[in-house]
Input
Amino acid sequence: MHEVSGAWRRAARGAGLLTEDGSAVPTIFAEMSALAGRTGALNLGQGFPDDDAPAPVLEAAREAIASGRNQYPPGRGEPDLLAAIAEHQAHWYGIPLDPETEILVTAGATEALAATILALVDGPDDEVVVFEPYYDAYAALVALAGARLVTVPLRWPDFQPDLDRLRAAVTDRTRIILVNDPHNPTGAVFSREVAGEIVRLADRHDAVIVTDEVYEHLTFDQPHVPLSTLPGAADRTLSISSAGKTFSVTGWKVGWISGPAELVRAVLAVKQWLTYVNAGPFQPAVATGLRLPDATFTAIAARLRAGRDTLGAGLRAAGFAVSTPAGSYFTVADAAPLGAVDAAAFCRELPARAGVVAIPLTAFASEAHRDEYATLVRFAACKRPDVLEEASARLAAAF
Output
């Protein structure tokens, strides 16, 4: 049998899926989901919702399928979806975009990230700065591109970075500053001071800012402010988002990237050799979703906020210390008050003890900084109210 090698091995090792001797390491997500299945525990580990998309979005998809829109869409995306994305950015954020040159539809946000990193990074001398803990794909994609991942730790309980550590991380070797805001896995929304420093550093070191904004409509205490709207940011920022989190259609994998035409063109040059195109009948449905009334988006955020509050109250009642998230699907809690010293061990015991599945925050951290998150646990609040209430009751009874 041939030994697997090359870029895949770099990506797998970067994501922590291979040991140095090449042995496969199962992901914590697969392990915890399997544990939920075996024990019947409520799965608050993986971040997918258990409700459905708004009815007009589903009906638009059915209509597109029935009317035969099932073949390859245009390479940049369906023109109506490109127009809807441009309308969305102008309406919500005052960002003017040319739908023909400054927007690209992708197979979810992850493909947009992959194509962007592969397009803009050129080997081991280039660095990509990310905030840690980070969405697990970031390390794999940077490794796939052969570049170096540089992390800036976020601090419990507000998960804002130390600006001196941020300044030390960004250098003339930095090609990309990758910003996930609202942030997965912590639920943080970065302060204006942090956002302004990111833009200042990118300008000083001639770096591209790449923003992962898939939770843009899921903020609870203040409206989302894209980094590209800050003074001096637009010309060096690529903004990425998707329909999956906002409309509860994570399986459709419809995302997009927008920004300066020359940068989007570079991403397209890579993207066309990845999936080429995707999700033909779902693209018109997402266009419908993006044009729904503002009240629809407000209601989606309100439902997630109520879930956050229900879960947070349940975690506090059980004895956890809780970081109240400002956005996203997730709530991070500290299990140290319950006697935990190792979040991974705690999460492996939790299904049997409480009938609830969660994910250790160390799964999203590099080896160098895992000690900073040793007892922190991530719970997904993107579930039905009855599920969150039952999970809260189980946790309170267990502890």
Remarks:
- Residues 69-290 form a domain with the Aspartate Aminotransferase; domain 2 fold (CATH 3.40.640.10).
- The mean pLDDT is 94.
